[in-house]
User: Which sequence fits this backbone?
């Protein structure tokens, strides 16, 4: 998406968010994390906000940091992953596999990327800006470019579960 078009879309996405409009994603976003998954979500958020010097009690700072999702984290480029809505979960699985492969290929060529589920929460401005037909859903987006290696947020690292806790090897 060219720079001017990206900036116009960014303004529309920020306006939708700031208006208080409820997200209206094309796909089911009602999942809420529980238990260990919620703990991991909090741990990741803590690592991210701490790297930016934002305290948990700083609601305005957290909101401004979250808002960066819809400004593409100031990346020069953004793309959106779309699929026919009827494909549902199986299409989403395939799209995730494709997106991960694309991200790895970009990394191999020195291009940094950030997958963003948040970019699927307000599909109408995206659909309008890119001329996407109604039968195609906006699943998620990706911002990409060359990372600023000195930015504290780009040095953030989250904890990882040992592979033994998430993979069962048989045989």
Assistant:
């Amino acid at each position: 998406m060219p720079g001017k078009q990206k900036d116009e879309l960014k303004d529309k996405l920020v306006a939708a968010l700031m208006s208080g409009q409820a997200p209206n994603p094309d796909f089911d976003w009602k999942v809420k994390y529980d238990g260990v998954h919620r703990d991991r979500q909090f741990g990741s958020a803590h690592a991210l906000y701490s790297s930016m010097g934002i305290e948990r009690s700083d609601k305005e700072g957290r909101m401004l940091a979250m808002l960066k999702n819809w400004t593409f984290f100031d990346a020069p480029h953004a793309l959106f992953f779309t699929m026919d809505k009827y494909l549902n979960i199986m299409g989403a699985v395939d799209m995730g596999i494709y997106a991960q492969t694309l991200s790895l290929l970009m990394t191999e060529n020195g291009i940094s990327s950030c997958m963003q589920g948040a970019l699927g929460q307000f599909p109408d401005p995206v659909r309008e800006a890119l001329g996407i037909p109604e039968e195609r859903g906006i699943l998620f987006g990706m911002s990409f470019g060359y990372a600023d290696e000195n930015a504290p947020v780009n040095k953030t690292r989250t904890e990882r579960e040992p592979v033994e806790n998430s993979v069962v090897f048989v045989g």
Remarks:
- The chain has one domain: 3-158.
- The CA atoms of residues 8 and 136 lie 21 Å apart.
- The first helix runs from residue 3 to 18.
- The domain at 3-158 is CATH 3.40.109.10 (NADH Oxidase).
